[in-house]
Structure formats: C-alpha cells, structure tokens
Design goal:
The chain is an all-alpha fold and 301 residues long. The protein has one domain. Helix content is 81%, strand content 0%. The protein is built from 14 helices and no strands. Helix 2 packs antiparallel against helix 4, helix 2 crosses helix 7 and helix 8 runs antiparallel to helix 11.
Length: 301
C-alpha cells in the first residue's frame, strides 16, 4: 500500500505520456517524501509543468500562452473537484493503516488512483489535442533529441551494469520509498524487499521497448499531420487515437506483462505492510495525516 505512487502506475513514454507524468502530480500528492513539499509542488505545478514541457518542446510564444492558461485552469479545476477525493482517500488509508492488508486491497487502491488520474487526463486532453498539431518540424526534431538524451539516462539507470548492480539500485530506491512512510526498516524487512524484487516479473528491457514504441508513434503521427493538409476532424481523430495508444498500449503482450507486474507489486506491498511493527504503522498513519493536512490546506486556498 505505501509503496504505491504515480511513478509505479504510470511509465513515461510519448509526448502525451510525458505530459501525463507531470499532470499526475496534481492527481495524487503521494510521490513526495516531505509533507510540506506537497504544498510547494502543488502550488507551483503549472509553472513547473510548463518549464518541464518547454524543455522538451521549445514552445513558441503562442503555444506558451495557450499552455500556461490551460495549466492554470486545470489546477483550479483539480483543486475544487479532485482534492476533496484525495483528502478522503488519505483519511480512509489512515483508518486502515493499523490493520493487515491483502494484495487485492492494494490493487483496488491502485485502480482507484488510476481513475483519479484518468479524470485529470480527460480534463487535459483538449490541450494535448490542440498543442500537438501546432508543433513545427524543428520542434519535433528538438523533441526527438530530448528523448534521445532522456533514453540514455533511463538506460543508464535501468539497463546498464550487471544484474546485481541493477538489483542494488532498485533495492535502494524501494527501501528509501518505504522508509519515507514507515520509518527505518529492519534488516529482516529489507531482506524481504530484496527477495520480492528478485522474484518480480519487472523487465526493464520490456519497459524500454514500450517507451521507444510510444516515442516513435508520437513522432510519426505528428510528422504525418505536418506533411499533409488534413481536415480539423481528421487531426482531432488522429490525436485522440495517439492519446489512446500512448495510454493503453496496443501490444497485448505488454498489457499482459503490466498486469503481472501490478499483481506482484500489490502482493509485495501487502506482504511488507503486514510485516511492519505497530510503531511503524503508527508512523505510516502520521505520514498520511501530514499529507491529508496538506491536501485540506490546499483545498482552502
């Protein structure tokens, strides 16, 4: 349960996918380790999102004005409509924290967060559809170079080195994330996490292949729209189809793989939670209470 975060549920890919990864910060404030950081990140999310996307797309003045306006409107909508649901979720998690959990309960939470994420995405879709076709060939070349740089960084983190080195990096990240919720873990609990990672169906090569598919699909679709003189209806249809392919892979093998990863994650998160002490579960409650306080404060702004 506490290991669940947007980075686990959403893997960045094509241009729309990368947009969604940032927007997901607005959907659930559970990716930051410090409670006060949630307020800071949320309040500055439109600016942070804009500069992040501009780094990939090198936006012109017209595109910038549209994007900044839409991001501010998205945040205003999310503050009013979605934050109450996030606050209620955090309250419910606190009540459940002292009790054992089952893997299917973790997966239920996972799918609930995906639903909240989807609501934000639906709200942001018109912006993505409007922005994509306006990208020039030079901007698409800039995007391709930015992706190449990011891909090299991703390979270094997830694919380079020996299997043991890759496992050590994943173990370090997972332990740090868990300790952000439960406090310091025991050696036995760390060994449990290591065993879970060793048995995980996660395969960085499969993930990377899907990332490259999404990037190639996005560039090909956007370049094709620039090459012809399609009607507005055709443009919107192509962009909506690209969005769908970016969020729901047409590769059935990858879809089945992600479900195996999800199932293993849910069981692992439940197993770790059930191995925690009363003091660690109290720490989890306190951490979630801090997040809830932040969310409710953000609702009042």
């Amino acid at each position: 349960m506490p290991l669940l975060n947007s980075g686990t549920l959403v893997r960045a890919g094509g241009v729309v996918r990368r947009w969604c990864a940032i927007i997901c910060l607005l959907a659930a404030g559970l990716t930051l380790t410090g409670c006060g950081a949630v307020r800071l990140a949320y309040n500055n999310a439109p600016d942070l999102t804009y500069w992040w996307l501009d780094g990939f797309l090198d936006l012109d003045s017209t595109q910038s004005v549209r994007l900044r306006s839409d991001l501010n409107a998205l945040q205003a909508w999310h503050r009013k409509e979605e934050l109450p649901a996030v606050a209620e979720m955090l309250k419910n998690l606190q009540a459940a924290s002292p009790q054992p959990v089952a893997g299917d309960q973790v997966c239920q939470l996972s799918r609930y967060l995906e639903g909240r994420f989807q609501a934000v995405l639906d709200r942001a879709t018109p912006t993505a559809i409007a922005l994509g076709p306006t990208l020039s060939n030079a901007q698409l070349d800039h995007l391709a170079r930015s992706w190449d740089k990011r891909n090299a960084e991703w390979r270094e983190e997830w694919l380079d080195g020996s299997p043991q080195e890759r496992l050590s990096r994943r173990l370090k990240t997972t332990i740090e994330r868990a300790e952000g919720f439960y406090g310091r873990l025991t050696d036995v609990q760390k060994a449990l996490i290591r065993s879970q990672l060793e048995s995980s169906p996660f395969d960085a090569a499969i993930q990377y292949k899907e990332v490259l598919r999404r990037q190639k699909d996005a560039l090909q679709t956007l370049r094709a729209l620039k090459a012809g003189a399609p009607s507005e209806i055709h443009v919107q249809a192509e962009m909506r189809a690209l969005l769908l392919r970016s969020l729901q892979s047409p590769d059935t093998t990858f879809v089945q793989y992600t479900e195996r990863v999800r199932s293993h994650f849910c069981e692992s998160a439940a197993e770790l939670h059930n191995a925690t002490s009363p003091a660690q579960r109290t720490k989890l409650q306190q951490t979630l209470q801090g997040y809830e306080n932040d969310v409710r404060a953000l609702m009042q702004r």
